[in-house]
Each structure stands twice: as C-alpha cells, then as structure tokens.
Amino acid sequence: MxxxxxxxxxxxxxxxxxxxxxxxxxxxxxxxxxxxxxxxxRDAWLALGEMGAxxxxxxxxxxxxxxxxxxxxxxxxxxxxxxxxxxxxxxxxNAIVAQYIMHFGSHEQKQRWLPGLVTGQLVGxxxxxxxxxxxxxxxxxxxxxxxxxxxxxxxxxxFITNGQIADLIIVxxxxxxxxxxxxxxxxxxxxxxxxxxxxxxxxxxxxxxxSDTSELFFDHTLVxxxxxxxxxxxxxxxxxxxxxxxxxxxxxxxxxxxxxxxVQLTTDYVKDRKAFGKPILEFQNTAFALAERKSExxxxxxxxxxxxxxxxxxxxxxxxxxxxxxxxxxxxxxxxDACLQLHGGYGYMSEFEIAxxxxxxxxxRIYGGTNEIMKVLIARSL
Length: 382
Prior knowledge:
Layout: H1 10-27, H2 31-37, H3 42-51, H4 69-82, H5 87-104, H6 107-119, E1 124-127, E2 143-147, E3 150-161, E4 168-174, E5 184-190, E6 197-202, E7 213-224, H7 236-272, E8 274-275, E9 278-279, H8 284-313, H9 318-343, H10 353-361, H11 371-379
Parallel strand pairs: 1-4
Antiparallel strand pairs: 2-3, 3-7, 4-5, 6-7, 8-9
C-alpha cells in the first residue's frame, strides 16, 4: 500500500531526499553523544541552518525559503523518522518561536531576529510554563513591570525546551495583574548579557535525553521596551491562543511520523526474529497486533494531512488541532507499548530504538497542553 500526502510537492520531494541523507550520514552519528550530554551541540543547529531546515516557511526577505507549513511539517517528519532526538527542539524553534515573531512581530523585530533563527546563529525557546501553573496559562506569576524604556522581569519558568542553549526566549509574563488574561504580554529576551537572567539545571527526564529542558529564573531582569512582541501590552494571552493550534499540530506531525516509524521498525524485526522455528510475524497474535497498528497509523496520517492542508490555507481551528494533538499522541503511546512488546526482552534494552521511542513518546500527551485539557477544549464545542 503506497500513500502520498496530499500536501507534498515535487520540490519538497527533492528537499526531503537530500535532507534525510544528510541526517542519516552527518548528524545521526552524533546522537549517542547528545543523549549522554543531554543537549544537541551548536554545530548541529548551524548545520541544519545551512541545509535550509530551520524556519523554511519564513519569507526570503528575512532569510527563509519562503515555503509554507508543509515545509515545517516535512522537516519535523524527517527528523522524527531519521533523528528523533532533534524533532522536539527543532519543532519548538521552527513551529513556535519563529511563528510568533512572523505573525506578531514588527518589521524591525522580524529583521532583527528571523535571519539568525534561519541560520541557527540564534536558537529559540518559549517560556510559558511555571512551577505552579502547568497547562493553566491564566495563572502566570512572572511579572513584567514597565520602568522607563524597559520592562523588569521577575519570576521563574520550568520545563523549557532548548532552555540551556537558547539565545532568544519568548517570555510570557503579566504586565498588569489587575487585568487577568488581558494583562499578559510576551517579551523577547535576548539571553546573552542579560543581567538578572539565570538558567537553572538541565532537568533529568525519563526520556527525550538529547533535548535540554530547563528551569529559567528572572531576578530584576531588564528587557528593552522595543522587545515587547507586537508593540502592545496585554496581547500575550490572545497571541498564545492564536498560535497554540499550530503548536499542537506540530506535535501531531511528530506523533504520526513516530507511529509510522515504529510500525516499520517492528515489522522488520518480527520478520527477522524467530521463535519455535518460524518468524514471529507468522504468529497470528503478532500479525494482528501489527495490522491494528498499521491501520491506526494510516488513519492518523490521512487525518493529519487534512489538518496540514487546513494549516497551509490558514483555516486550522483550535478544536481540530486539539483533536489532532490528543488522538495522535494517545495512539503514539499505545503504538510504542505494543511495538516494544513484540520486541520481547530486547525491546527493554536502551540500545534498541524501540526502547528509546517508548520513553520518548510518553511526554507527547503532556506538553502543548495535556490531553485532558484537549478533551476539555473539544467538549466545549459539542
């Protein structure tokens, strides 16, 4: 059965063929070291920039390829398939940070930051989550008080992807506590030389070991007033609500690519692995289990492609994105468990790819808004 995504083009085919070869031959050999170091090295970011894999949908006037969300999705899929260690960090950089600047930044802000994000000279992060807040964006306690030509940031963030290496960080803070959600603003923090800004420890996670995840602290940290994203206070909550659907779609893109990879990986394994004198695939339980997983992966792929088409046209709504994020990540976790089981004892060994994918998949149901929050958003549309 051959299936081709409806949003694919001949140009994307050429790009992806070159990109996958580059990932497997140039960057994949470094992945074990990244897992040990709990961080992807700066040279890898620069190499991705040279390949045109960073922010490929950014207009040419700001250094990008001038593509669409199809290019963003293709990069995430290929990373998830060939080098999953990089999928999340690059998705945050491409599908979140660059998108905020592109959609809400002034022309001057775009000129200032987008070219560096495109080349990898700047690595992006977004700091929403706080120690006591979780998925509740209304409960922000980080404060941004205006003092002359600057904002003074005080507070802390946690679980920040790219937090250890990021040069440019979008910080969600309350600029007017009396206004509730209408008092939230987004500030662009340039990390280098920023007094009062401190990176906490690189958090020790059960999975995603190559992706640095950090605590961030702000103690009277000065941010120039011109770094207010969009140039108007109190727009932060609405900016986040507008951009979250694409963030959640990016997570779904990763989830479906992971499902497809795990089914392929496990199919190859059970064809080769023998028990009681015959390949494991010839046992009905094995064949049926993989038939179920292949069916769900294909269903997920068709739905995802429809969502990507909506995103390209600018029609992706919050409910559809929530359905995509919730359902595909739930199925990703189920697929990881079923495929590990079919690997038997070897599936529990860290040197096997399926073991790493098993632990890496679990967080997909948590970030970007927990799947329970997704169900709340979906239920409101009933």
